[in-house]
Predict the structure.
Amino acid sequence: MAEGNIRSGGPGARMRDVANAAGVSLMTVSRALRQPQKLSEETRKAVLDAVQKIGYVPNSIAANLASNRSSVVGQIVPSIQNSLYADTVKGTADVLRTAGLNLLLGDSGYSLQDEEALIGAFLAQRVCGLILHNTDHTPRSLQMIKRAGVPVIETGDVPHNPIDMVVSYSNNAAAKAMTLHLAARGYERIGFVSLDTKINRRARERQRGYFAALKALGRRKDPLLVSEVGPGLTSGAHAMVDMMTRVPNVDAIFFAGDVLAIGALFEAQRRGWKVPGRIAIAAFDDLDIMQHTVPRMTCLRLPRLEIGRRSAEALLERMRGTVEPVRLDLGFEVIQREST
Amino acid sequence: MAEGNIRSGGPGARMRDVANAAGVSLMTVSRALRQPQKLSEETRKAVLDAVQKIGYVPNSIAANLASNRSSVVGQIVPSIQNSLYADTVKGTADVLRTAGLNLLLGDSGYSLQDEEALIGAFLAQRVCGLILHNTDHTPRSLQMIKRAGVPVIETGDVPHNPIDMVVSYSNNAAAKAMTLHLAARGYERIGFVSLDTKINRRARERQRGYFAALKALGRRKDPLLVSEVGPGLTSGAHAMVDMMTRVPNVDAIFFAGDVLAIGALFEAQRRGWKVPGRIAIAAFDDLDIMQHTVPRMTCLRLPRLEIGRRSAEALLERMRGTVEPVRLDLGFEVIQREST
DNA sequence: CTGTTAGCGCGTTCAA
DNA sequence: TTGAACGCGCTAACAG
């Protein structure tokens, strides 16, 4: 566990000191801070004045231990750098703040092993809830969570077998909807580019949604129109060029991952390919930038921030006693713009 | 303080249970987990087996209280959603993880009051260090930090009067360098757009750097060539159009904030303005996207990730006993591309 | 190498 | 409305 840590502060006034300064007992100070209405006005004022004067900062570590409560929520995202997750984290942080809770944040780097390690560390910190942007977990992760009995929110997809609560949208449904949308606009040969479906369930679900749409349309899967690439703008550019080389008459490509679509659009600009004249491009997620590119990008709008907010709220609900596990599908929206 | 929290877990095995199961004392279990080399191999193995079998998750809350150590670092950024800070957070998180430390993350929303509240909450959690992406703080913030005696890193600029440690680059120097660079490339009337300099010290320092460059060049400040706007792509677009309306012969604009430059570039594309023929555009920060736009964007490269990493490392150093406060200026780099 | 004792700073539970 | 005793789960400091 934690090694290179430090003595966490200098002298640091304790509650005892405040009690002495105010001429009351320990408990009175404790109450003044947590249940002010239970004290007479003058006592309360005396205590709070002493707190101010001494500059007392409560020790929530001790409070947690004594009360067996915690005021920290753990959230684990696949990548802090990815602005999509940043939105969700922001939503969570906002709601938690208003409730006086704090956020312990972890980056799993898309690795289930790392997620497991983080879950262990967070449970050791006795978080009062976990928000996982992932629906696959190692057996040990599941075991630890069950044993701890901590409320959990899964997010990022709708799992078939949720651990506890779910706040998300369906990758499958979203990808299917976009594919059908493109077909409805008259595109005949729609390519699909995503991240690695073997290690990334969200990518896999999106690909399944794409296939489901083809089936509904009575079209055949064409392996040449499906590709999986790494993350990043450059990947998107390459994927587009490769696919157009293999299948010259492809007329639309649906990029179901990160910033792939933007990379492709920029590459098309560089090569002077008309979008959507030569090739139509659709993206999965409505990043801010999608409505500023030239042409503006057709995409799906996912409730990123809302997922973070609702997740935190679901946790708060549970803490207030609701037992019914929240299972929310927040849906999505197809945004038609000029790129298709 | 924390209100709507929850009993943090079900039964949850304690160290006592492990001790019983392994037939040893409490301390032996504690040692097996934290100083394995101090135990005989067989004892250690017996204990660790028991830990596995029982599924024991240590209680770091209790450990913290008993040892007066903490394994949590607090980091406060102005905006989690801003990908610049996300990079820094990522750097911090990575280094902390390898050291077994955890990250308590806060979003101050650019407000000193909110920063103060977060600092209070983090100190209550007895964090073993603070990383603040800000060099201005309320008096109460400063007082709390001093009293707590916690190591602090300030980041995001080089403060004249650091609280403790600093890991950053100089906004002033960077802005000056870019302005000089533009002048050296032959631009005569260089505009400057930033965020609000009244509430944002980084913006202020950048503006000062721009003015310093003008002075060094023997050019006059022209108020019409200086503007302050809100954040966002749209702001950048408007700022450019406004400035070009006011000063038709402006030949370059240096956007010293967020994604302003990208918004401007897209607007130029929409209007069919040649970049840099009609107007040259330079950006402050080397977002990934800067090297993919058409034309690619001239910008400053700031050591975002490195700031996060080094900050965490400086904290670790301090915890290992180094008293000398780290004061690092990690510098920057001017990246010349086709937009200027 | 292992165990025992004492207490970290606070909240809970009672009694006053 | 206020206070005293006790213990949360663990580690430090010692003893063996």
